[in-house]
Amino acid sequence: MYWSKYFIPTLKEVPTQTEAISHQLSLRAGLVHMLTSGVYSYLPLGYKVLTKVENIIRQEMNAIGCHELLMPSLHPIELWQKTGRDKVLKEIMIAFDNKKGQRMCLGPTHEEVITHLIGHFVKSYRQLPVTFYQIQTKFRDELRTRYGIVRACEFIMKDAYSFDRDWEGLKKNYDLQRNAYLKIFKRCGLDVIVSAADSGAMGGSVSHEFLVAAPIGEDAVWINKDNGQVRKEEEGMSHPGEGWSRQVAIELGHIFQLGTKYSDSLGAVYLDENGQQKPMIMGCYGIGVSRLIAAVIEANHDEAGIIWPKEIAPFDVEILPVQTADEGLMSFAQVCYQDLKAAGLEVLLDDRDESAGRKFNDADLVGIPLRVVIGKRLLAQGQVEIKVRRGGQVIVVAQERLKETILKLREA
RNA sequence: CGGGAAGUAGCGCAGUUGGCUAGCGCGCUUCGUUCGGGACGAAGAGGUCGCGGGUUCAAGUCCCGCCUUCCCGACCA
Fold it and tell me: Which nucleotides of B are covered by protein (CB under 7 A)?
């Protein structure tokens, strides 16, 4: 991609009325744009990152046998009345009457819809277990939005739902999800903390949260440095004692063993081997996908900008020709561009006729993991410079060794 | 929803005890010179001073009401 033909509206100055680093950097790097409080557009660069995160999630969900589907955002309120959650979630639910006078809402989550759907299609123990997931927009009318994309009224979530014949099956699925979550967060460059947690409005018994340390976290966990135990901080909790330290963190994922709460009230039942009707045993598993990006930025940045982990970086390499007026230099940059692209890399070429300083600063801000700087002096000696965004290591190599060096650095 | 702060050009800001045609920096347009860390010169475009009402000869500035955004709390990925 040529920068001049793309759309990366970087900001030199820190936007006013922003506190969180991730909020500031996501605006400054041209990832997102606010429409109104808690409602954001994803600009091309931000959307590219989002897509990469989504694809990692897809890979890991598919790997444990989940099936992707897409459920609607518009729900008839009757469905929610059946579980009583029209009242439980009233505060955050966006509800309205349509032209036919039907009460509708925008889905804040999808237990009701999926249970209704599975109850319709699944009738026999032979069809179980089964797990579905979607990556979709959720609507929650937060009384207080926070830190840009961290707590929004419209956000993107991965939600998965498992249906089993018994609790043994559920526990197996629960563990599969748990392990998949660890892989997902790792691939996104996050060190995740897993903690047993309260099930809240979701219902059910066992649940675990996946948190990432961040100063803007809305939660806190206590970690025991001796045995690695983790405890979620509950309200009014006192210091657990020697060896425990407190860590403020942001919740990115939450998995629940729901049991029969939804299958009972929505009639999701199946016939077992003996012809006996039984409620399906459910689990649900969520990841705040858009929030995850904010957490990644919180955990991966420096004074100058974002430092993307390689798997979710919008591009693998940025090529930065310093003197755009120099035709020989620019054509060499284009050769490098084609060369690296042919090697299977996603490459961004900053072909803009801007001052070197501005291009360097934008490159730091946008945070592509590897940068190839092409300047007159080194080029005259048949050399180019590679700069690693994380850590700032600078390597000067002969032109012929550019591709292999980039590929090697990418694997590192 | 309680408490606090803020709203002047796309972004960041100044605007004094009310007083001339509302300014500055960045960005944007055109031309020229530049080109290894946000270059320089020249000429331009861009405003419902958040909205409504009031006070006054005169309101960005004072008063009242409202809206919006941000932060702290209470609640959730």
Answer: 1-2, 6, 11-13, 25-27, 34-39, 68-77
